Amino acid sequence: MTFHTPVMVKECLSYLNLRAGYIYVDATTGGGGHSLAMLKAQPEIKLYCFDQDSEAIEEAGKILHNYNNVELIQANFKQLRTELAYRKIKGIDGILFDLGVSSHQLECTERGFSFEKDAPLDMRMDKNLKNSAYNAVNELDTKTLTNIFREYGEEQNAYRIAKAIEKSSKPIKTTRELAKIVESIAGKGTKASLKTKVRVFQALRIYVNKELESLSLALQDAINLLNPQGRIVVISYHSLEDRIVKQTFKKAEQKNEEQSVLPNSNKNHQQQLIILTKKPVTATEEEILVNPRSRSAKLRAGEKVQREKRETKTSRKPNRQNSQEEK
């Protein structure tokens, strides 16, 4: 079984515009599918591969071991700036985010991401995290759980499901036990009940891994790190992620004069990004047939603006690696 099938590979490579000797980041390496495609398309790049999941890093190492221009980093992408600074990298020329849960995480029973298989209620992408979905379900009060299901799952029955969890006579230890409680409210065997379970499990996963907070921070750090003409490419799989990506890109694209007329605006703001995808790019019907997970994928891309005149007049040298590392 494939660890994880990468989505919209051709589109990612096109928007990243890989160039020999330049520095790139795969912020969500997973099993290394996108990374491998990047290296095959342009073997002479320097690539830093991030993932918080130790199993993903181990798997990526197996398929990328022949490349000596790759460094695997087990860390959440919210630590992107810190980890690169530690390696004396001051700027990058492209970065890819493929968000959400991987195929392996969903299919690996003991990780507890899926309600379709009975497993311990876990959902931690990084196994070193202190609190799991078990802690959330059994320790949080009804109001907090309601907010989680409503905010991160956009679930209409959020309060009723949270209340049913609170009334459980014993600790909820497995995914099946939680799914049964959800079914007691939403019903069983219908498309509506299936969607409710998807939303509840999604909400818990997002909460446990602090996915949206990490995403906002990482996107802005990535944009700040990009060199002029550097590219950022983000694939999201649900509306909450896509909304954050869209809003972050729009803010980064605001021009100085647009920002200055806003009340309480930061007058030092400068345009950082040119959005390359006015509408999100979606997978082709051919890809969806082969990889159904790609159906919900939305790709957005942007390019870092050039502010200094000397950079628009002078061609950039192809070998960037040494120039971006502190001596």
From TrEMBL:
CDD domains assigned: AdoMet_MTases
Residues annotated as transmembrane: none
Entries under SUPFAM superfamilies matching the protein: Putative methyltransferase TM0872, insert domain (SSF81799), S-adenosyl-L-methionine-dependent methyltransferases (SSF53335)
Top EC class, one word: transferase
Annotated GO biological process: rRNA base methylation
Region called Disordered, residue ranges: 285-327
Keywords: Cytoplasm, Methyltransferase, rRNA processing, S-adenosyl-L-methionine, Transferase
EC number(s) per entry: 2.1.1.199
Catalytic reaction annotation: cytidine(1402) in 16S rRNA + S-adenosyl-L-methionine = N(4)-methylcytidine(1402) in 16S rRNA + S-adenosyl-L-homocysteine + H(+)
Sites where the protein binds S-adenosyl-L-methionine: 32-34, 51, 77, 98, 105
Localization in the cell: Cytoplasm
Alphabetized GO MF terms: rRNA (cytosine-N4-)-methyltransferase activity
Compositionally biased spans, kind Basic and acidic residues: 300-314
Residues spanning the signal sequence: none
Keyword rRNA processing belongs to the record: yes
Superkingdom assignment: Bacteria
Family stated for the protein in its record: Belongs to the methyltransferase superfamily. RsmH family.
Job of this protein: Specifically methylates the N4 position of cytidine in position 1402 (C1402) of 16S rRNA.
Protein name as catalogued: Ribosomal RNA small subunit methyltransferase H
Natural source organism: Cloacimonas acidaminovorans (strain Evry)
Gene: mraW
